[in-house]
Amino acid sequence: MNREQISKLAHTHHPIKSPLNDDSVSSLLAKALPRGDERVLDLGCGSAEWLLRALATHPDVHAEGVDISESDLEEARQRAVRLGVDARLTLHHQKAEDFTSPHPFDLILCVGSTHALGGLLPTLEAARDHLAPGGRVLIGDGFWERTPTPEAIEVLGDFADLSTTVDRITAAGWTPVQGHTSTRQELDDYEWSNWGTLADWALDHPTHPDSPQVLDWATTRRTEWLRTYRATWGFATLLLRPTPA
User: Fold this and answer.
1) What CATH number labels 21-182+234-242?
2) Residue 20 in contact with residue 180, Cβ under 8 Å?
3) Does 170 have pLDDT greater than 90?
4) Which segments carry the region annotation Disordered (predicted)?
């Protein structure tokens, strides 16, 4: 079982692949889609959960998603058909950095997927190229709530604190107009769901050849979370507009 398959399995009960609960997602989408007829792009959409929710709740929205995982995109296609929104969803199997479009977008999403474009600021630069006048960007990324240990940086990467993160965003020409900082409950629920789901699957399939690998992965990641970064890592989702020159 490769990392993509393990990730898909881990998110079985938490399809938003970031530490946000359903109410937070709904609130952010309501703020990001003020007209209700926007054209939306998700860079690194995975199984397109954000897009599917936007389409299901806003019948005049049209959406496009870009991802390198054909299995995730196929899952999104099937769910779109079941939800009756497939006519308003277009999916592209390619790298986000290679995506081009003949038209701009009113809302660009990248929540928990900035690594697909090289990080937070490169993602914002890519989004700017696709953004329509008056458009918005909804971006979600991690930050350090407290000074991390070297071990935490090794596991998760080199983030900044929240104030520095926002300073970098504003210096790059963006103005935050809304935001959500994931609560401790959201952060914990996300981690427990991921690693608990993997452990459950392994214990339910003891004779499966991948069972030991999956259980070891779940145990390792749960331990890293509890011992290495739980006390220091946070997640913020920001709604941004370009700052006038």
Assistant:
1) 3.40.50.150
2) yes
3) yes
4) 1-21
